[in-house]
Each structure stands twice: as structure tokens, then as C-alpha cells.
Amino acid sequence: GAGVSQTPSNKVTEKGKYVELRCDPISGHTALYWYRQSLGQGPEFLIYFQGTGAADDSGLPNDRFFAVRPEGSVSTLKIQRTERGDSAVYLCASSLLNGLGYTFGSGTRLTVV
Amino acid sequence: KNEVEQSPQNLTAQEGEFITINCSYSVGISALHWLQQHPGGGIVSLFMLSSGKKKHGRLIATINIQEKHSSLHITASHPRDSAVYICAVSGTGNQFYFGTGTSLTVIP
Questions:
Q1: Smallest Cβ distance to B86: which of A42, A50, A93?
Q2: Could you read off the pLDDT of B49-62 as tens digits, one per residue?
């Protein structure tokens, strides 16, 4: 596609539920990044994929968070047993190798009630 | 200590003023990015640079690798430039480190 697409744009869920957030990167972008942004703060790195593999998942806050990219394009961020503190905007970005063409999606606003 | 430091945190300018936002970093980098985020909006990449200077319209970005410092300049600022400007560096392992952003308000 023309840009990085994230769905849904908004998600409200109850505490304890499971959620999946989807990122569709720019076609041909091998690198894909997930970030979390809380109100008034800069993006916080979660995980980075190069192709199908997670090259760096050091930013995932705990084992309730998991992300996959099985075919090297679309990625899904999965959050189990959601907590109110998980409420944030989850941003996805993609790029060519070494950051060329680095582009953000418009984010998914997750609210855990 | 943050890997990326930005200053100032907040900036208010009159329309037409020349604006400078500074970014210093402490890690080895493969590239530095300047990003723009409008209130309630997505993040747009303005520049990616690894040396020297880039210009796009009224925006200029410079980087000094030896001093680990970059600046973003906006000439003839306009109210539509009001946004948060974020400096990010991609480390040698391709992980990104973000500054906390500079909130710019340009008053007509």
C-alpha cells in the first residue's frame, strides 16, 4: 500500500481481555517496528522485525506482550490479560534496510477499561 | 540518562521567526531522524540523515557526527508548523532511540 496501515484505529477493551493489533507495512519494507506512546511522551520501542524474525524484542514490557510477522509483511501485536496501564497509542513503522523510507502508521489507540 | 536529549522542551514563536531545535545523542548511530507529530495526528518522518545537511522547503536539518549533535531549523515559521518535533536515532543494531520531543507553537 501507499503507507503503513494500522487497524483498528481505536480499540476499547475490558481489563483481562486479549487484544490483537495489526500493522500492514509499506510493500517491500523489510524492517518493521512497534512502539507504544503514552500521552505527552515520546514513542517507546517495543520490538523490531527484520523480515520474519524478531531482531530485537528487548522493549516488550513483559510476557503478556507478543508480536509475530509470519510472512515478513503484516505484523500482529498481541496483548494478553490486558491491564489499564496498557492503555496507549500503539504505533507501527516500517522501513527499508538501515532505516531508509522510515514511515509511521497512524497508530491504534488502545483503551483498557 | 536518555540516549537522546532534545532542547528546548517547549517553544513558542511568532509567525515568521527562525526556529532551531537541538538534539544530542550518546550512542553510536547509523542514522538520525527528525519526526513531526501534529496534535492528535500521526508521526511523519521529515528527515533521515547520517552526515552533513538536508533541506526540504523551509526545513533544514544538520548533523555533526563528531559532536553527536543535530539541529532542525525552520525558516519563516508559520502557525501550521505547530507540532511536536521528535529526534530519533537508529543505533548500530537498528533499534531506535527517541528524544522526548519539542512542542512548538507558532503564533500568528
A1: A42
A2: 989 999 999 999 99
